[in-house]
Design goal:
two-stranded antiparallel ribbon, Aspartate Aminotransferase, domain 2, Aspartate Aminotransferase, domain 1, 2 domains, 13 helices, 399 residues, alpha/beta
């Protein structure tokens, strides 16, 4: 079993992908070829955003967004300590300081209720992460930002295809940033990313920044980077878009199967009822003292797992100086207990059953797999019953 089955995905779309790649090889415009503009138009239509700017990676998208907003040394950006390192890395790369806010126990996303107390006169932006594929509480975050005159950048690297209160991820704030890394819900075959905004001036700035700050050839009106997305990678995403809606449905079906089989057995991070998830990951909580043993037993059974993420950003060696003496207890607890299971559109019911059976066996020998009806929903998270591998103290801390 693969953690993410990219081989089956390719085989299902092989003719489309190969034809798109061949078209690029035929016209030879490997940088800023016609597929770049075509993909941007398609992504604008998907998200509803007025402007899409493709870039070389999700990390570069964050950096360009911060640069376009004029964020610079001395500024502060409020964000989460529980994310991939690129979230805080981008803030530091433009010379600003990331200020951390703890996360919700039930979702792993930034706790919007705690953001206001971290706002200072130096705060310029809020950078929430749509973790594991589910947007954060963007309405609350946007309302707070508007009161304080702040920009909001959604780090939607894991959530392209998700929605929040009827609006699409990447089109929920001042700027949305996503990634097309191969393991993402919508991925290419290398690095790639995109920026989204309704603001014409910001869109122009971001387009110029991605080509070394050029307003026209060899006329550089601002500081920029080499941040273009390759034409070949845009062609691959265009091909994958043809099946993307189906793939999202299959990811949600697989998640529903997990929910049903794990109900009252093991808690999972939950999806709020006012939003959907792209299920970049399906993540359960296990006892921190048991995680490595469980992973080893699953690996022996041929089932790969991952930990997203084993060390919060404020505890990373290169970042510890940012929050000396500060503690973010929910993020820290999650980092010791999260365990991501195989997920993807080609994971069928039998595969989910195989994973769950092995997981419950590793957690407690002889434990029976739940026999919920296929496709039924489960109250994963705060409603999950106690289990030898569960981490109920984390969930109990959330409202």
């Amino acid at each position: 079993m693969d953690f993410i089955d990219l081989k089956s995905q390719y085989l299902a779309s092989r003719e489309l992908i190969n034809a798109r790649i061949q078209a690029v090889l035929d016209h030879g415009q490997y940088i800023m070829g016609p597929e770049v503009a075509e993909l941007e138009r398609r992504l604008e239509a998907w998200t509803g955003a007025r402007h899409c700017i493709t870039v070389s990676s999700g990390t570069e998208a964050l950096v360009i967004a911060l640069m376009a907003l004029g964020i610079q040394p001395g500024d502060e950006v409020i964000t989460t300590p529980f994310s991939f390192i690129a979230t805080a890395e981008a803030v530091l790369l433009v010379g600003a300081r990331p200020v951390f806010v703890d996360v919700e126990a039930v979702t792993g996303n930034i706790d919007a209720r705690l953001i206001a107390e971290r706002v200072t006169p130096r705060t310029r932006a809020i950078l929430p992460v749509s973790l594991y594929g589910q947007p954060a509480d963007m309405d609350s975050i946007n309302a707070l930002a508007e009161r304080h005159g702040l920009a909001v950048i959604e780090d939607a690297a894991q959530s392209f295809g998700a929605a929040y209160r009827g609006r699409n991820s990447c089109h929920l704030s001042t700027i949305g940033c996503t990634s097309f890394f191969p393991s993402k819900p919508l991925g290419c075959y290398g690095d790639g990313g995109a920026l989204f905004t309704d603001d014409k001036a910001l869109a122009r700035a971001m387009r110029e920044i991605r080509v070394h700050g050029q307003s026209r050839r060899y006329v550089h009106t601002r500081l920029g980077v080499g941040g273009r997305m390759d034409t070949l990678q845009c062609a691959i995403v265009l091909a994958k878009l043809e099946r993307f809606e189906w793939e999202l449905e299959q990811r949600r079906r697989a998640a529903a199967d997990y929910d049903a089989l794990l109900r009252h057995q093991l808690p999972a991070l939950a999806v709020r009822p006012d939003r959907s998830s792209a299920y970049a990951q399906y993540t359960v909580l296990v006892d921190e003292g048991e995680r490595e043993r469980i992973r080893a037993e699953l690996d022996a059974a041929g089932i790969p797992t991952a930990v997203h993420y084993p060390l919060p950003i404020h505890q990373q060696p290169a970042y510890a100086h940012l929050a000396p003496g500060e503690s973010y207890p929910v993020a820290e607890a999650l980092s010791r207990t999260v365990l991501s299971l195989p997920m993807g559109p080609f994971l069928d019911r039998a595969g989910v059953e195989q994973v769950v059976q092995a997981l419950l066996q590793a957690c407690g020998p002889g434990r029976a797999m739940a026999q919920a009806a296929p496709g039924s929903s489960a109250d994963a998270g705060p409603g999950a019953a106690a289990h030898p591998c569960a981490a109920p103290a984390i969930l109990a801390s959330s409202s």
